[in-house]
Protein: Tetraacyldisaccharide 4'-kinase
Amino acid sequence: MKILRYILFPIVPIYYLVTWLRNKLYDLGIKKSVSYNFPVICVGNLSVGGTGKTPMIEYLINFLKEDFKVATLSRGYKRKTKGFQWANEKSTAESIGDEPFQFYNKYERDILVAVDVDRQNGIKRIRGIENPPQVILLDDAFQHRKVKAGFNIVLTTYANPYFKDMVLPTGNLREPRSGIKRADIIIVTKCPEVLSESNKATILNSMAPKPYQHVFFSSIAYANTLISVHSTLKIEDLKTFTLVTGIANAKPLVDFLEAKQLDFEHLNFKDHHEFSQQDFDGLNKKELIVTTEKDFMRLKQFESLQHKLFYLPITVKINDKSKINKLIKKFVKHS
Structure:
């Protein structure tokens, strides 16, 4: 795969020019964006996958849901339905996508969850209901320029920050680095739990944020208890197991489990992998399966796996939680 990316390097200038020109047309107002007079918060990135958007959306849900009526709007990547869809008791990962299905399963009593590739139409449908939500969270819509979110939170990983990357197909960037100027908040995700001030300063110097931008650093916090459909299991009680991942970057989870000196094999599938009957037959032979919450949403459909299928919850730890919360609440209250 890496060799192919280098072979495709001549395409990089073409991709760069096309995406740069598209953004410039929106910046100049030649291509039109729709703004809103109510709070719309976008969580996105410059690169393809693996920056931690889902945990960040959940962070916002947990922070906002006590004071505001919240809705999430996603495209519903790889779902087998079309158009606008509300999440409901009949929804599955196949009908609305794995991340929205995860949001619905965790927060169905607290928020509304919807999917639509056309974010303008999605927002219109969400706001068109009786007693509409006060805040809409857009999941992975930073490049969806037809909608102009009032507040943009852009994520970039500590291991592969956007300022050291290049555009597709050789790099991972969906658009040129200059797109970062549209961000209100930049979060460096998946940092080491202890990050020195000098290391932060080096990153900030490379990033050179604009005066209106705020930069934060976050790390992943893993729970001590794994969860299944029917029971829970302490990490210290884990013995031999199979780790199953279908996410963009499983390395932080693998590193965490290895640091615990646990004995496991790792079946690493591509991001948003659609588990087939053949996959199920192989997994059904395993004694104990540990997976991510996103993969759990897809795998739990196989009833015979449910008694041995567990996921490890994660949360986001942000270095200056009070400051970012104040910035978010200020935007919501004054929109």
Summary: The chain has eleven helices and 15 strands.
